[in-house]
Design a protein that fits this description.
2 helices, Neuraminidase, 446 residues, 29 strands
């Protein structure tokens, strides 16, 4: 089903009564579960995935989305809270991967993986006019080898002119700027043996966090001095070997491990493992962690993203299947949609989660979780809309944020299926429609 057909479906879901069909209304007329407005198409036809999403801290109606493309990262902007979107100029890097952040002065930072020289330099472009133009770009990693030497960079901003970058190149490296991206500190190695490193997070006290896996365990890195030194803590054991291609060619833990922190010292780490989305929580700022908690409820879930509220509340968004099976074993009848799992006791020993659909069907068939090792459709490969093993057209993650009131905001790709679009191009290529959903009712993290 294409984006234009999602709105009627959501209307029917909201009107229906019964478990799983839509929200139950309380006496005050407020929904008892999150309710999302009809989805808005950001871009109707893109040959990419992994949309990054950020909210301007000075103006919650101003949103940005970016995604890797060629020759540079694609950027879209919204000045009305996501009701409409405009294409902005490409970044000054050369894409590969992309990540966005906005600082307290409203400056937008866009981190690419590759520079125009073809190296894995992690160039960070900065815009000071809401992405109308790009004022400058600085290579943060200054790699001397090819673009593929570095992998999965992330950028985070805090304060005016203050931003951080992190990336993997064997070790996990960190850098920061305090002058609006004009200069960056030399790269600092903060961890080794990292297989997959997640995005940066920061709490109200200024502590920085990032989570990663090393093939056997999930770890949390913390910095209490703005990134100068880091403490490494084990958060959980993994269930099986991560990306052991000899025994688990499809992998048992999937990209990426994501951390979030609230204002009361609670830290949350999520990842997807085989068929489940897993969460662990810490009540002492990440020094120790409680038991593993399965967020999914009998259906397969992959690629989670977590956002924390002020105290013990979290939203976890992920792709959920209509079946309980290995994600790469999806069949013609297998469908996927975006689901929001919400908990207001996530730091407790036995948290409860309410699962709510965010979207209609966004994908059919399999979802491959082994990155560039996937054999199926990637970008311009394969046949769009036809379920195949090893399908990576969604890439490896999507992002969620919350507005100042705590409403969930989600950007995600939707397959372009020729049966809906009637576009012959979609019979050959595996393009997507980038889509945005906003929570408009129900419990929030505010």
């Amino acid at each position: 089903m294409g984006p234009a057909r999602l709105a009627p479906l959501l209307v029917l879901l909201l009107l229906a009564a019964g478990a799983g069909a839509g929200p139950l209304r309380g006496a005050a007329g407020t929904a008892s579960v999150p309710v999302f407005a009809a989805p808005v198409v950001i871009a109707a036809d893109v040959a990419t995935g992994e949309p990054s999403l950020v909210v301007d801290p000075n103006d919650a109606s101003r949103l940005y989305v970016a995604a890797p493309d060629s020759p540079a990262t694609d950027v879209w902007t919204s000045a009305d809270g996501g009701a409409s979107w405009l294409r902005a100029p490409d970044t000054l890097g050369a894409s590969g991967d992309s990540s966005l952040a906005v600082d307290a002065a409203g400056a937008l930072y866009a981190a690419d993986l590759c520079s125009v020289s073809g190296h894995g330099d992690v160039p960070v472009s900065v815009s000071e006019d809401h992405a109308a133009t790009w004022a400058r770009v600085v290579n943060v990693a200054t790699e001397s080898s090819g673009c593929g030497s570095a992998d999965r960079q992330w950028v985070l901003a805090a304060g005016a002119g203050h931003a951080y970058a992190i990336w993997n190149d064997g070790d996990t490296y960190f850098s920061k700027t305090t002058d609006g991206g004009r200069t960056w500190l030399p790269p600092l190695s903060i961890s080794s043996n990292v297989i997959l490193g997640g995005p940066l997070a920061r709490d109200g006290a200024g502590t920085l966090y990032t989570a990663y896996d090393d093939g056997l365990e999930i770890h949390l890195l913390r910095s209490f001095d703005d990134g100068l030194t880091w403490v490494d803590t084990k958060a959980a054991d993994e269930n099986g070997a991560l990306r052991d291609f000899a025994t688990h060619p499809l992998g048992t833990v999937n990209s990426f491990v994501v951390a979030a922190a609230d204002e009361h010292g609670n830290v949350y780490v999520v990842w997807s493992e085989e068929k489940d989305v897993v969460l662990v929580a810490s009540r002492d700022g990440g020094a120790t962690f409680g038991p593993r908690v399965t967020v999914t409820q009998g259906k397969t879930g992959v690629f989670p993203w977590v956002v924390a509220g002020p105290s013990s509340g979290v939203d976890v968004a992920f792709y959920e299947s209509n079946q309980n099976l290995e994600p790469d074993q999806g069949q013609a009848i297998t469908t996927w949609h975006v689901t929001l799992a919400q908990s207001f006791d996530a730091a407790s020993a036995a948290p409860t989660f309410t699962l709510t659909p965010v979207s209609g069907v966004v994908h059919r068939g399999s979802i491959c979780t082994t990155g560039i090792a996937c054999a199926g459709p990637q970008n311009f490969l394969g046949v769009g809309g036809v379920p195949t093993p090893g399908d990576r057209r969604l890439y490896d993650f999507f992002e969620m944020r919350v507005d100042p009131a705590g409403n969930a905001l989600v950007a995600y790709p939707v397959d372009r299926w020729i049966v809906d679009t009637k576009d012959p191009f979609d019979a050959v290529f595996s393009d997507e429609s980038f889509t945005f959903s906003r929570q408009v009712d129900g419990p929030t993290l505010g």
